[in-house]
Amino acid sequence: MSEQKKSVMVPFTVAAAACSGWLVSDLGPMVNPVKPAVGLEAHDSHAAASLLGQFRTGISSWMFLRADLYLHNGVEMRLLTQDEVKAGRKGVGNSEADKAQLHDDSLIVTVVPPASRDFRGWIGDLERATSSYKDMTNHSHNNPRTTLPLFRLMTWLDPQFAPGWTTGATILRWENTMPGVRAAHEFLAQGLEKNPNSIAILTQIGFLYMRPLPGHPYSDRDIKHALPYLEKARSVGVGNFDKLTDEEKEALMETYRWLGLCYRDSGKPHEMLAAMTEGSKLYPEDPIIARFIETAKDLISKL
Amino acid sequence: MNPRIYTALARTVVLESLRRKDLWVVAILGFIIILTAGTLGFFGFDGLEIFAKDLAVTVLGLFSTILAILTSSRLLPDEIKNRTLYPLLARPITRGQLLAGKLLGAVLVSWIAFLILAVLTAAALLVFKVKFEPIMLQYLFGKMMGLVVICALSMTLSAYMTPSAGATMSFVFAFGSSMISRALVMGYDSAPEAIRPVFQLISVLLPQVSLFDMGGRVVNINWGPVQAWVMWSLFGYMLLYSSATIALGWVKFRKQAV
Amino acid sequence: MQPAISVNNLGVTYRAKKGESLNAVRGLSFSVAPGEIVGFLGPNGAGKSSTLKALMGFVEPDAGELQIFGDQAGTPESRMQIGYLPEVAMYYPFLTPVETLTMYGELQGLFGKTLRKEIDDLLDLVGIGHAKNKLNRSMSKGMLQRVGIAQSLLGNPRLLILDEVTSGLDPVGRKELRTLLKAKRDEGATLFFSSHELAEVDMLCDRLILIHKGQLIEERTMSTLKDELREYRLTYRGSANVSDIARDMNTGADGITIASFANAESMLGATERIRTKGGTILDIVSQEGSLEEYFVHTIQEAA
Description:
The complex is a heterotrimer.
Chain A: H1 3-20, H2 24-31, H3 42-45, H4 51-71, H5 82-86, H6 99-102, H7 122-130, H8 148-157, H9 162-174, H10 178-194, H11 199-210, H12 223-239, H13 246-265, H14 269-282, H15 287-301
Chain B: H1 3-19, H2 22-40, H3 48-81, H4 85-89, H5 95-126, H6 134-160, H7 163-190, H8 196-205, H9 215-219, H10 228-253
Helix pairs in contact in B: 1-5, 2-3, 2-5, 3-5, 3-6, 3-7, 5-6, 5-10, 6-7, 6-10, 7-8
Chain C: E1 5-15, E2 21-32, E3 37-41, H1 48-56, E4 63-68, E5 71-72, H2 76-79, E6 82-85, H3 97-107, H4 112-125, H5 141-153, E7 159-163, H6 171-186, E8 190-194, H7 198-204, E9 207-212, E10 215-221, H8 222-229, E11 231-237, E12 248-251, E13 256-261, H9 264-276, E14 280-287, H10 291-302
Parallel strand pairs in C: 3-8, 3-9, 6-7, 7-8
Antiparallel strand pairs in C: 1-2, 1-4, 4-5, 9-10, 11-13, 11-14, 12-13
Helix pairs in contact in C: 3-4, 4-5
């Protein structure tokens, strides 16, 4: 290649790499290092600090929503409105229990109603016919594994997108196989490397250790391995509770629940009581944490 | 009715657009799509076909709609601004014929852009070993009919408002019609009986652009082609809505002082 | 015989926002006979362009009747007989003159070899045959004006309506255009044009129509106007008194008198009288009056 061509190609290659966002996640911390102590703000200081970061976050969130849609084979559902709830209508969240319900649009509330409840007549008929989203005929619950590459892609695009890591791991774990569990652990380990203080990822790892897989080495709850992750999630959460997003707060509530279980099953009622009392101050209305307090007190009284 | 009038006007719009390199942008975008598709392979192809198809129909729908709106919403205002309208209107043609010819040009530009993108995305989908299905062909026809509605709407809006306002309104209708439609359907049941006709009226007046998008059936599994009555109905809707819309544009334009 | 143009009591009003309106033309009436070349004059804002636009159907008159060869003006039938050159027009920047004229020709109902030949001939005629395949955007203002002139001549129209015909042309171009327009007149075409260039009017027109503030001020044939404006001047020495037949007379300290006359007859009568009285005629001048002075004077009077 001539020198002239090289001089043209180099800036082009660099520009193309920059535009694709390639290696940006690795370059980011060098330019604007994330302080370990404020891991919860990693998203603010890292991805969202640049337009590219926001774009990546947006794309990842979009993929997350699309993945949910693919799992329902394109049928788009919606929540019941307050009026519908008042009118006594019932929707089903998960119709896996009864396959017949999958195709029953009187039970599953889709964004466009069935012909019997659609005032638009011909236009409504056309919409049901042209769009997969609103026709229940082919509604199914597809194998979650098919969306896995998408989770890999979204976490590559935005490594700080915790729901991508945790849901991806859940999908891997879904199969109830040893390779699946290992893959889920590996996937979450990658996520934790990028987000060392993510409450959601830490709790998800704890959950993986606490979920038994009959007939395999993970046949028992592995409290020993789960506890350090859950404790770390607890310490990150409790120290920064006011700064947590709603999703992180929800993850922290899960942390307390799993912690309660860990301490109960490992015979540490005092630790259980301390953790649950702390949790109940943050989540006073959570019935599980409240019940664990009673359990802990009961266990202590029996000592 | 001399067909040469329409072909002459349409050819000018297409030639101008080609030479202004509007369609180059589309080709470059298509190239980026192929490049992106190649990169996606890095994450494993199994399971990504659906996403790749979804990305393809999203990109196709998005860029062809944007180009259709930008082309058709500036046709009339540009003619007036650049004073190219005078020699045109000095010819023995009616303003209605002028509008129809220009609309035909805008539609052809949108179709060319759409088909270029379609070929490029199809090439990209081959990487994922996506098989051809009849619904894909129906999807293409459906989108092309939808582009006619969008072009007619944008052109009419540009006769009533400034070019940027017209384009913005067109974007709102093109991308938001589905959302507005959902809101209407959800609100209808809880709306008082007296207001319900208003919902029905809005539903009829609203450009139902999303009806022409069969992307959901293309992307997801086993949906299969739609029945013939659906395609004919879409064709009828396109004819009816585009004619009504452009007639509305003509009402404004036919006596407009230039 | 039907007049080429018949304007009867024309009124054009533009409605601005906030309820204001502007009467651009009021009660204007005139006609143009077939084969005439008529100049349409008036200061800026007099209503010339509005009148032409009304004739072409670009604006809707709010009063009056306009006809082109007996057809109602503004209809496709009437425009079939008109070649129109707008005051300032752009011609699609990304088309060539050939493509531009092909489109206009097809709209005019021409096609095939006939159209192609006519386009080639016209482009040669207006002197841009060498640039027929260049994009319009690469052309100068003068060349674009020539494209405009060529498009106005497409289909050999019976009536040419030209708004500021020589705008953008250099002196050579103007001369060529005058020759071309005279040739068109010789072929039987009617020419109606507005211009600020009084010299053009002087050299081209059979008749002129002068308007101001949307109303007709004067309508004159060029021959009578020129006669009226022509100035006859006599310089002599002697005692002869010609004040009764002179328009103006001035005698200097050296005894030399300069007298001006309204027509040749008066001047000849004066020379006779001077000779009889033994005077000496030093100079006889017969010169055309200034059209510009006439224009300014008439407009000022009307104002």
